[in-house]
Input
Amino acid sequence: MSQQQFENTITTESELREILGTPTQRAADKVIDHIDEHCAALIAHSPFLVISSADAEGNMDVSPKGDPAGFVRVLDEKTLVIPDRKGNRRGDTFSNILVNPKVGLIFLTPGYQETLRVSGTARIVRDPALLESMAHEGKLPTFATVIDVEKALFHCAKCIIRSGLWEHEGVDGVPNYGSILVDHANLDQTAEEVQRSIDESKIANLY
Output
């Protein structure tokens, strides 16, 4: 399928900087190479992150991860651990890590407007003691994703403020997940049947 065509497409760094300008010294200097006490404090209060990864050809993927606040473990200033709970068994992030271990994370914390960006190199581990220490309701994570931290920076609050992200209480006009799956996966079931199985799984297979 051909791409949509547009006028005045930016194709070089010089074109980009001519319009965007350069970051302030403060913005340029805020990147650190480790998890300090400020990063650790936000991670301890964050119940949700998104992890980005890419396969050997550079095809990108992003995946959400969530658990009670503080579910990501800070082992030391250069090492984070993310437990993997029950899911759909696609394993896109894990498959990507096996061929291209570079990942990026963004931590979101309800009620806190700034976000934390972390990037580094990932490993998939099943260390028994580590998994045992991250058990929830008596159930161990399937894997642990260990991130060797290379870069960390706090991202300013403007996008959260503009979106009103923490002000929303519900969403109207978006179909339920059952309807979406029937269309996207070409299922031979009704949307109601699929949604019922999803709702049951949310309760029975959360951990």
About this structure: The chain has a mean pLDDT of 93. The first strand starts at residue 48 and ends at 54. Helices lie at 13-20, 25-29, 37-45, 92-99, 128-133, 158-163, 177-184, 191-204. The beta strands are 48-54, 60-66, 73-76, 79-84, 102-109, 112-125, 143-155.
